[in-house]
Specification:
Layout (H helix, E strand, L loop, with lengths): L1 E7 L3 E8 L4 E2 L4 E4 L6 H14 L6 E5 L3 E2 L2 E2 L14 H9 L3 E5 H12 L8 E7 L3 E7 L2 E3 L8 E2 L2 E2 H5 L1 H6 L4 H19 L3 E5 L18 E4 L6 H9 L3
Parallel strand pairs: 1-5, 5-8, 9-14, 14-15
Antiparallel strand pairs: 1-2, 2-3, 2-4, 6-7, 9-10, 10-11, 12-13
Helix pairs in contact: 1-2, 3-7
This protein binds beta-D-glucopyranose.
Length: 243
């Protein structure tokens, strides 16, 4: 079965048709810069543009950078506040004329990794952290997702973890990889004390630079790198979009 997977990010909105049995992109992904300000209407228009680019009239799954309950957006850390309370699934259905399901972006990446990537067959508690503009998390127990964990926003030392330890923080604060890894390590250690994961999977934009920071991490849990790197968001969104 083919589902169009779309990943809405802070800087780009990317999509591609996905073979959801194989977990593979069927074509090159198509990317459009995220319109600014990232309000509902312009984003919905962009999502529709991506569907149109692929002449799509089938099911669509969208990964969205916020907590999403039954299609309704509940938080807005890296998107416009106007999203809060918006039924994103309904809005995207309207602009694309296709059946659409919407899921948190980190949960989407987690689904992809648990189904086809580093988490395949992993039992126990698995924590996936996506490192990008935000810090996204997804948690699985024996392969079952606990949706919408917003663990990028736990407070450490009185500060939002994402503000201190995301990839955006590394860039904003002009940190070396080692300096940033120290912060990220404190973040992971804090999560470990709260969740006791058996495995941590690191994904998101910087996961393909893992050799620059993973050697500085001192976690108790095993660490694996997401196998589909940046494509996990699109593949996982497509999995969530299955009718
Ligand atoms: C949002 C999460 C999202 C993460 C990654 C955070 O700021 O609160 O919902 O998963 O960024 O995009």
């Amino acid at each position: 079965m083919q589902v169009l997977g779309i990943d809405v990010g802070g800087s780009g909105i990317k999509g591609a048709p996905v073979d959801v049995e194989k977990g593979e992109l069927l074509t090159e992904r198509y990317r459009i810069p995220t319109p600014q300000p990232a309000k509902p209407k312009p984003i919905a228009k962009t999502v529709a543009e991506i569907a149109k680019y692929f002449n799509w009239d089938g099911p669509i799954g969208v990964g969205f950078p916020a907590a999403v309950q039954q299609g309704v957006v509940r938080t807005a850390a890296n998107i416009h506040g106007k999203w809060i309370g918006t039924n994103a699934a309904k809005l995207f259905r309207k602009t694309t004329n296709c059946p659409v399901k919407v899921i948190n972006d980190a949960d989407a990446a987690g689904l992809a990794e648990m189904t086809f990537g580093a988490g395949q067959g992993k039992m126990g508690v698995v924590l996936l952290v996506t490192i990008g503009t935000g810090l996204g998390t997804s948690v699985f127990t024996n392969g079952i997702l606990l949706p919408n964990t917003e663990l990028g926003h736990i407070e450490i030392g009185g500060e939002d973890a994402e503000t201190n330890a995301s990839d955006a923080a590394r860039k904003n604060d002009d940190l070396s990889w080692k300096e940033w890894a120290k912060r990220f390590d404190i973040y992971l250690n804090t999560l470990e004390k709260l969740l006791w994961p058996d495995l941590i999977i690191l994904g998101g934009g910087v996961s393909n630079k893992h050799e620059k920071f993973v050697p500085y991490l001192n976690t108790n849990s095993e660490i694996l790198i997401a196998e589909s790197f940046n494509e996990a968001g699109i593949i996982g969104a497509a999995l969530a979009g299955r009718p």
